[in-house]
From TrEMBL:
Protein name: Peptidase S10
Keyword field contains Manganese: no
Keyword Nucleus: no
InterPro entries: AB_hydrolase_fold, Peptidase_S10
PANTHER family, per database record: RETINOID-INDUCIBLE SERINE CARBOXYPEPTIDASE, SERINE PROTEASE FAMILY S10 SERINE CARBOXYPEPTIDASE
């Protein structure tokens, strides 16, 4: 099976990273952010789980020197699994004291969300953006507390966070200046829970997950009267697979998106890095990962004849990856020794790894091996989510990295700060444990039924057909792709190659725009890059919503 997407980091953090080596722009965040204020307007506690509940509060956030007052709602919506489609049956059973039948209770999910609505903004003109992380098995704490919520947890860049106490500050880069926001925890994560017969089977899978989020979003639009608002989806990592699937699934529920925003995308798992000994003949993963290895070597000054400009350097590496390197890999055992030596020497110049090592790998760098090998002689391991992070190697004799230094560096700070924020600011105090992530990667149902297929396919999931169908049927929908140069878990060039093969007419390709940052998987952890990300996303929403 493929190397787990963020698997090493998932147990601790599931989608954390940091950002750039050097500021991408001169603008800097304010040194003394304005304080975010919030107060409860109700003391009513949340209802029992598996019944819709909400707790309201109010607050304000300063963005670009402007104070924005908002209403916050922390709550849950209850959705039922795909097998229980009959709305009338659901409503009838809701009135019964015992909803069990001979087969046991129907599977259901209580999905937790935090919504922020700008006060005084007409719903029909105000964009609304649904935001989530991925995993699979991650809550949306990272985008909420690191990128777009009204407060942001403070963590140092490219090094381990000191222990508690942790602090939050006003988030000058919150997206509340352009859109209302809904942060959603996937079933089983955060404060979301699942119940009923075969509950894991009902919700833990590619199509089951897309179905759950489709039902949540349509229910939310009805509950809060937002059907006529400009609508957006923002997904990170596995959340991009969910997001692309949602673009099509929501269409089937009569919801056309104005825009789909992807961060650190992975839409086709066939291009994920793998162990060449276990899956020989599949060479695309090594091609798409090479530019990230080169970017990392460039950052640490380990590339030969290092140029000053990273982007120009990566253009060169991308050309090599898709020409000489790709041809060498395709030749396999027929590759002449002299050509093998030449390719190894060029790989060494780009990546900083030794020629003998690269020859031993048969020119294919296994997932996790680069992180372990780059500083192997010093007993150090680079990050997977963000290669700028470096930590002590846990097992010097291992072939690949056995943990992610970046994930270990910031996870505790995010969780602790969020635990305080959600209870003290949002007044949400359930008697259940918050789960930043759950270990369901190996249990996930990876079968996916793309548009045009009559049954789920037994293959690694690929939602490019879903995105293509969504764009063809809604040619006004725009797609924004974002990624970090120092992300090995979902290499930026992987996203480029995926969308180069998106089966849409050439005219629709202009609906896609790309933004890449000197950063890792979570590009927003580094403050200068967070500014850049905010400005790009805000501009995207303004241009595509026909509103301000």
């Amino acid at each position: 099976m493929k190397s787990p997407l963020l698997a090493a980091a998932a147990a601790a953090l599931l989608l954390s990273t940091t950002a750039p080596a050097a500021p991408a722009r001169s603008k800097a965040p304010p040194k003394t952010p304005a304080k975010v204020t919030a107060k409860a307007d109700t003391a009513k506690p949340p209802q029992a789980f598996f019944h819709p509940a909400e707790v309201r509060s109010v607050g304000s956030v300063s963005i670009g020197g402007q104070s924005i007052a908002y209403d916050a709602v922390a709550g849950t919506l209850v959705i039922h699994s795909k097998e229980w489609e009959d709305t009338d049956a659901i409503e009838a059973d809701a009135d019964k004291s015992d909803d069990k039948d001979k087969d046991g209770p129907k599977p259901e999910a209580s999905m937790y969300y935090t919504a922020y609505f700008k006060q005084g903004a007409p719903a029909s003109a105000r964009p609304i953006t649904f935001v989530f992380n991925g995993g699979p098995g991650s809550s949306s704490i990272w985008l909420h507390m690191g990128a777009f919520g009204p407060v942001r947890v403070q963590v140092p860049d490219a090094r381990h966070s000191p222990p508690a106490p942790y602090s939050t500050v006003n988030n000058d880069q919150s997206l509340l200046d352009v859109s209302d926001l809904v942060f959603i925890d996937a079933p089983g994560t955060g404060f979301s829970r699942i119940a009923g017969k075969d509950k894991e089977k009902a919700f833990y899978g590619v199509d089951q997950d897309i179905d759950a989020f489709t039902k949540f979003i349509t229910q939310f639009l009805t509950k809060y009267g937002r059907w006529n608002s400009p609508k957006y989806v923002f997904g990170e990592s596995y959340g991009t697979m969910r997001g692309a699937g949602l673009a099509y699934s929501l269409q089937q529920a009569d919801v056309d998106l104005n825009g789909l925003m992807l961060l650190s995308d992975i839409l086709n798992w066939d291009v994920m890095p793998d162990d060449p000994q276990l899956n020989p003949g599949i060479d695309m993963p090594y091609i798409v990962a090479l530019p990230t290895y080169a970017a990392t070597a460039w950052y640490f000054n380990k590339s030969a004849n290092r140029p000053a400009d990273l982007r120009a350097f990566l253009n060169e590496v991308e050309r090599f990856a898709t020409t000489d390197y790709a041809q060498a890999l395709i030749k396999g055992n027929d590759l002449p020794d002299a050509e093998r030596q030449r390719i190894a020497e060029q790989l060494s110049a780009y990546t900083g790894l030794s020629v003998p090592y690269l020859l031993k790998t048969n020119l294919r760098i296994e997932y996790g091996a680069f992180q372990k090998e780059l500083f192997g002689e010093q007993g150090l391991t680079t990050g997977t989510l963000d290669t700028r992070f470096v930590g002590a190697t846990l097992d010097p004799l291992s072939k690949v990295a056995t943990y992610d230094p970046q994930g270990s560096a910031i996870g505790a700070a995010y969780v602790a700060a969020y635990q305080s924020y959600v209870r003290d600011r949002l007044n949400w105090r359930p008697d259940i444990q918050f789960k930043s992530g759950i270990p369901i990667y190996s249990k996930w149902d990876y079968k996916h039924q793309p548009p045009g297929a009559d049954k789920p396919l037994i293959m690694l999931p690929n939602v490019l057909p879903d995105l293509a169908s969504a764009m063809k049927q809604n040619p006004t929908m725009k797609v924004m792709v974002n990624g970090g140069y120092y992300d090995i878990s979902t290499p930026y060039f992987e996203g480029v190659m995926e969308l180069r093969h998106l089966p849409v007419p050439k005219a629709l390709l202009s609906n896609i725009e790309y933004h890449y940052y000197q950063s890792g998987h979570m590009v927003y952890v580094h403050p200068p890059t967070l500014i850049e990300l905010h400005d790009n996303v805000a501009d995207f929403i303004r241009r595509t919503s026909n509103s301000r």
